[in-house]
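so the lab meeting is tmrw and i was supposed to have these ready like two days ago... anyway. pasting both below. for each one the top line is the aa sequence and the line under it is the C-alpha cells. i havent really looked at them closely yet so no promises
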Amino acid sequence: MSIKINYSNKISNKSLSNIVLFCNEKYNINGLKNYLSNSEYSYINDLLKTIDLKKSLFVFDINSKKKIILISIKNNLKTSDFENLGAEFCKQINQGKNKEYFIFSDTISGKYDNFLGYFLHGLKLKSYEFKKYKTKKDTRIILVNIIGNKNKPSIQSQLKFKAIEEGTFYARDLVSEPGNILHPDEYAKRLSSLRKDGLKVNIFDEKKLKKLGMHALIGVGQGSIRGSYLVTMEWNGAKNNSKPLAFVGKGVCFDTGGYSLKPAKFMEDMTYDMAGSATVVGLMKNFALRKAKINAVGVVGLVENMVSGNAQRPGDIVKSYSGKTIEILNTDAEGRLVLADALTFTEKKFKPKFIVDLATLTGAIIVCLGSEYAGLFSNDDKLSKQIFDAGEKVEEKVWRMPLHKNYDKLMNSKNADVQNINYVGGAGSTTAAQFLQRFILNKTPWAHLDIAGMAFSKYGGALNSGGATGFGVRLLNQLVEENYE
C-alpha cells in the first residue's frame, strides 16, 4: 500500500464518499453543517450523544458507499500529537478497503501552526511497509485529497516533510534488508548512488584502510569473505566554510558475535546491527533533499562479523587509527572497535563542530531503558541538552547516562592501552561509551547514542508499523534545524 497526497480546488462534498472532517475536543459539530446533509448531521449528532468521546477518531458509516470520519483536535496539543493523529488515521485507512479519501482542511480550527502538515507527515510515516520480498504484494494506491483554501502546508513545508520521510524510509529500507543481500560490498555500492542527490561520497576499501592504519575496524571484518569499508558522505549547504556537523554510524551488516558466538535465538535479529549507520545515511540523504543550510558529514564503518579460519580471536591485540592499542577480550564487543577508528578519523580529518555517533551497541541499554529511550552519553552539556530537547519534540526520546573517569579502570588492559569489554561486570553501556570517549582525542563536543532498543520494533510504535523504525533521522534533523541552521 502506498499513499499519495493530492491538493485539490474547492469542490462540493455532496457526492463524495469517505470524507474526513475535524472538530474540537468536545465533538461540537455545529460548524460542520456546510459539509454534511441535514440527515447526516442529525444522524452523527445523535450518535455522539450516546458514545464515549475519549477517542480522537470516529468512523460513521452513512451507507454502503459513504463514510464520514470525524477527528477531534484537542486543546494544548504538541506537534508530535498532530503526527500521532495522522498515524491513527493511517490505521483506519489500512483497515478499510477504500482507495480514496477527502480531507476538508477548512474544518481545522485552533491556532496550531501547520497542523495539517504534521498530520499528513504522521500519516506517511505510519504507512511505511517493507514488503520487497513478498511474492504477493499490496499494490493499492490510496489517494488522499486535501480540499479547501485554508490550513494547507506551504510548498516549502511539504518539501521539508518529504525529505524527512524519504530519509527515514531509506534508513528503514537498509535496516530491513537481510544480511545475504545487504553485506558490506552491496552497502558501499548503494551509498555511491547517493551522489545523485548531491552528496560527495568517498569509499575507503580495505586496501586504503590498511594504509590509514584502521586495524580496529579491519579486525572486526577479517573473518568475512566480504570487504570492510569506511564511507564518508559530505553535504556542503552553508554559504561559508564553517566547520561541519559530524554524524558517525556503526554498520555491522551481520553480527554472529565472532568466536564469542551469540546464542542462536538472538542471532536472526543481527541484520539490524547496522542501524546506526542507516540513520546516518538517511539523515544525510534528508539534508541533501531539503538542501539544508549547513555543512555536514556522515561517516559509516561497514563490516561483517563472521567466524572463519581468519576471524579475529579473543586475546588478539590491534592498533587503532588513533595509535592506541586494543586488547580484544570479546569478539562480540565489535561495534565499539568500528566506531573507535571512525570517530578518530572523523575528528582528525573534518575537525567538526561536534560529533554524534549512533550504534546498536549494547544489550545492557535495553535492560536499562527498554524500547522507550535511547541511551545518551556525552562530554558536552550543551550538546546533550540540545539532543534531549529535540528528542522530546519529535518523540524520539533519549535519556542521559553517566560518564566518569572512575569507569576507566574497568576498561584498562594489562597487555594493551585499553580492552574492549568490562569483565568485572555491570555498567555495560557506560563502559562501552567510556571506551569510545578515549578515541575523541581533541576534546571535540561528542555524544554517543546507544539505540539498541530503538532501532527495531517487533510490535510497532506510534509512527511505525513494526520492524525497522529509522530512529534518529527525525531526532537529529530536529537538532540541526532548531540549533544550527
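ok protien two:
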Amino acid sequence: MAQAKSEKTRIACEIDFDKGGKQQGYLRLPHSVHRSAYGWIGIPIVCIKNGDGPGVLVQAGNHGDEYEGQVVIAKLIRELKPKDIRGRLILFPMANYPAARAGTRVSPIDQGNLNRLFPGDPHGTPTQMIAHYIVSELLPRVQYVFDLHSGGSSLELIPTVDIRYSTDAKRMKGVIALARAFGAPITYIGHGTGTTMLSAQTEHLGILSFATELGGIGTVNPANVAIAEKGIRRVLKHTGVLRSNYPVEQAPPTRLTEILGDAYYIYAPDEGVFEPAVELGAEVKKGQKAGAIHFPESPDREPVDVRFPIAGIVICRRIGARVQIGDCVYHLASDVKSA
C-alpha cells in the first residue's frame, strides 16, 4: 500500500489538538493565485477535548455535493460542549472545502476526488495536500473515524453504513458493532481492495472506521438527516467519547449485507435516456429487467434493455436520466449468509 510521504504537512492549523476545551478554527491550505499571491484557503475544523479518553474523527464533505453529513456535523458543533466529552472529538465538516463550497463532487481547483487520493502528497495539488494532512495529522490522534457520505448529485441511496471487509476477525467484529450502534436501515460490507480511499488508510493504521451513504440527489432529506443525527450520537456514545449519561435513542436493527464484486454494479451499455423499471429498496432476481435505454434522437430505434446480472437488494440508483456508456444506474447488495 502507498504510504503518506514522510515530509511535514504544508497546511497550518489554527487550533491545538492537545488543548482542553472547545476550539474552532481553520486549516490554512496554501493557495497562491493571481488575486492573492500569499493566500490560503480556510478549511473549518473543530476540536473538543476533555481529559483522557478515546480520540474520534467525524468528517463530511469528502465529496463536496454530499450535504447530509455536513449538516449533521454543523449541528454537533453547535450542540456539544466539553462537559459532554471524554477524550478528544475532532469535527471536520467540509474536508474537501473547495469542492464543498462549490457543491461539486471534486475540487474545482484541481479536479481532485479526495477519496481517491489517499495517502496524499504534502507538495501536491490542493486536494492531495488535504489527503496528506488527514493521514499525517488527524489519523494519528484518533482510534475511530466516521466518514459521512451520501449519493451526491448523481445517485440516491438507502441510508447505509459502509464497512470495508478485513480478514482480521477482531476488527470486523468491532466495526460491525459500530454499524449496529449507528442503526442505519442497511449495513453493507464491501470487498474492494482499493488503496487510495480513506478506509484503506484507517485499516492500515488499526483505526476502527466506517463510511455512510445518507441519501443523495444533491439535496438534504430531513428523514435521512434524522437517521444520521441519531446514529452518529449513538456511535459516539458507543466509542466512549460521549459520556455515559448523554441521552441517545435505542438503535433500530440494521440489515447486514455485502457487496462481493463488479456484478453488484449495473452500468449503462449505451448512450441515451434511461427509463428505470424498479424502485430503490426492491429485491430483484437474476435476469430481471432493470430498465431500458431510449434513443430520442433516433426515435425509430428500439430501446436497449438493461438487466440485473445477479439477484439482490437495490440500495442505490442513478438520478439523471441521460446516461452514457459506463454510468452506474443501479447498485445491489445481498444478505450476509452467516448473519
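from a quick look at the 2nd one: The chain has six helices and 19 strands. The chain has a mean pLDDT of 95. will dig more after coffe
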